[in-house]
Amino acid sequence: MLLNLLTGIAAMLVCLLFQAIFVGICVRQYVRFHRRHGLLLGPLQEIALLAVAMLLAMFGNFLQMAAWAWAWVFVLVGEFADFATALYHSAVNFATLGYGDIVMSERWRLLGALEAANGILMFGVSTAMMTAVLTRLIRLARPEPLDGA
After folding, report:
1. Is the residue at 23 inside a domain?
2. Is there a domain that residue 146 lies in?
3. Interacting residues of 119 by C-beta distance below 8 A, sequence separation 6+
4. What is residue 116's predicted lDDT score, i.e. its pLDDT?
5. Region of residue 35 (phi > 0: left; psi between -120 and 50: alpha; otherwise: beta)
6. CATH number of the domain where residue 7 is located
7. Where are the transmembrane segments (predicted)?
8. Cα–chain center distance at 8
């Protein structure tokens, strides 16, 4: 069990690094975009900004699933023979779906729960980033304060 925990924690740290990189890229691009185009955006610019932020967040989450599946955990410990199966299993765990059609051996099954915990946290960070961008766009679209109405 200690090996499971150490392996899972190491994978979580790698995922945290990936998430920090992608959130940092999104924030930097968002600030750069506003400096270049001003504070008031047109509808197409707002949609483009949200789409880019969402795509970067999803790519970052997919990269984390792939890291669990191949480079870091499931294939390396010999749990799955091929990357496609490992990636599918990783995506199911990371998204906390838990289909159960592919299960890990008793020796390594704690990794599935650790990846699910990691995934829900990382999707939460992605959601928070998207909420921050959307909140900012809403404030820019309606600069006057709401009076409770």
Report:
1. yes
2. no
3. 61, 64, 65, 93, 94, 95, 96
4. 92
5. alpha
6. 1.10.287
7. 6-27, 47-74, 116-138
8. 17
Residue 95 lies in a domain: yes
Cα–Cα distance, 88 to 81 (Å, whole number): 13
Domain boundaries, position 22 = 2-141
- What pLDDT sits at residue 40? 66
pLDDT band at 147 (very low <50, low <70, confident <90, very high): low
Residues 87, 89, 94: CA angle, nearest 5 degrees: 90
Contact at 8 Å (CB) between 11 and 73? Answer: yes
Is 41 domain-assigned? yes
Place of tokens 């390396």: 76
> What one-character DSSP code corresponds to residue 106?
T
- Is the overall model pTM greater than 0.70, yes or no? yes
**Number of folded domains in the chain?**
1
Quote the CA–CA distance of 70 and 83 in Å, as a whole number: 6
What does the DSSP 8-state code read for residue 69? I
Rg (CA), the chain: 19
CA dist 2 → 90, 106, 110 (Å)? 21, 14, 10
